[in-house]
């Protein structure tokens, strides 16, 4: 009987009601987003800005530092139609200045995620998630925020762009499957 209950509660997320939204500059977080979609299904959406960040890495770092300081939230070009139809929202982002990137703060502020299940994921340059997952929780006080996934991506500062490829991609895929199983998503 126990078994039947477990089978009924696990893996019943509906791909039609699943949104995977991510921010990615050098495609590491995008690679994770695509792996999640391959495993779970759902609608994949890249967050784009009305005014994109500079191509130049140092200029971007400086701009983000300023935005983090002032709490500035950039306007998004990306629009989600009918957010209300999604029950589960995966939210992916790199670590920027050890914080949640400003565009993701914009996203979480802009959309009403009340009652939804939020699942964060992250790539970073090796310094970890910083305050990112904590900020997601703070900005989604009326959502169920599940345990996030994080892995090392690139380090643009040192010329490392897309690093989630080849062996690292295979390893990441396995980790993502284990994580989603643990969360009873698959
Ligand atoms: C503006 C900026 C700030 C960053 N700050 C950090 C940081 O504080 N800690 C860290 O580990 N990596 C940092 N990184 C590196 C990224 O988190 C890392 O390269 C990540 O994998 C990039 O993801 P993406 O390829 O999806 O853009 C920063 C990168 C940029 C562009």
UniProtKB/TrEMBL annotation:
SUPFAM superfamilies the record matches: Flavoproteins (SSF52218)
Membrane-spanning ranges: none
Keyword presence, Signal: yes
One Gene Ontology term of the molecular function aspect: FMN binding
Domain Flavodoxin-like: 18-184
Keyword list, A-Z: Signal
Entry superkingdom: Bacteria
Record PROSITE patterns: FLAVODOXIN_LIKE, PROKAR_LIPOPROTEIN
PANTHER family, A to Z: EXPORTED PROTEIN-RELATED, FLAVODOXIN-LIKE DOMAIN-CONTAINING PROTEIN
Protein name: Flavodoxin
Organism from which the protein derives: Dyadobacter psychrotolerans
Lineage: Bacteria, Pseudomonadati, Bacteroidota, Cytophagia, Cytophagales
């Amino acid at each position: 009987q126990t078994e039947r209950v477990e089978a009924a509660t696990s893996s019943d997320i509906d791909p039609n009601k699943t949104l995977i939204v991510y921010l990615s500059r050098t495609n590491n977080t995008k690679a994770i987003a695509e792996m999640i979609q391959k495993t779970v299904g759902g609608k994949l959406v890249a967050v784009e800005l009305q005014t994109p960040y500079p191509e130049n890495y140092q200029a971007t770092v400086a701009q983000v530092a300023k935005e983090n300081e002032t709490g500035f939230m950039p306007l998004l070009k990306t629009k989600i139609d009918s957010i209300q139809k999604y029950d589960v929202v995966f939210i992916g982002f790199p670590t920027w200045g050890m914080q949640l990137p400003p565009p993701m703060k914009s996203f979480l502020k802009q959309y009403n995620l009340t009652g939804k299940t939020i699942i964060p994921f992250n790539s970073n340059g090796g310094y970890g998630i910083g305050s990112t997952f904590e900020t997601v929780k703070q900005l989604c006080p009326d959502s169920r925020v599940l345990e996030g996934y994080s892995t090392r991506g690139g380090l643009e500062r040192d010329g490392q762009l897309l690093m989630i490829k080849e062996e690292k991609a295979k390893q990441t895929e396995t980790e993502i499957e284990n994580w989603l199983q643990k969360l009873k998503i698959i």
